[in-house]
Amino acid sequence: MPAPNPAALDFLLTRRSRPAKTLVAPVPDRAALRTLLTAAARSPDHGKLEPWRFLVLEKPALDRLAALAAARGAALGLAPERIDKGVSQYAMADLAVVVVGVPKPSETIPAIEQTLSAGAVCLALLNAALAAGWGANWLTGWPVYDEAFRAEGLGLAPGEFVAGVIHIGTETAAPPDRPRPDLDRIVTWVAV
Fold it and tell me: Is the peptide bond before 60 cis (omega within 30 degrees of 0)?
């Protein structure tokens, strides 16, 4: 059995995402971000397929994506408030990392396991950022479900998808903790 790590367990029991709108510069530099990405890439990956990759969005790219989200929202005929929400996710950010799901052909590793691995990478990156003292939030939003936005804005190939957009920065406010799941309601103990 590995040695207990009470500090890590305490972190996991108390971790909280920070709303993306409360994150500002400074953001991790490339060296600091590389450490966070290294931690995220240690996620479970059955078959060692690496069914994910990272797109690091710096401020100029985020501004470009905000403009594209506005154009795509209008082209799709979305309600103005829905467009604004998609635009603001990029316009207000200083740094975000897109975790791209990259399913790989495999006779032994089902596609769902590869998708779950991409989700694990999102959580690992979020937790690594929080553990390093940054504020972080995992978002998606309507733009990443728009094929044209994914292709034109993010350069995704057919079959690739966005597992998450992880916003990272300096937190300016921490909201109160939210209610957490009632384990007695969601846990079934199976003994036989």
Answer: no
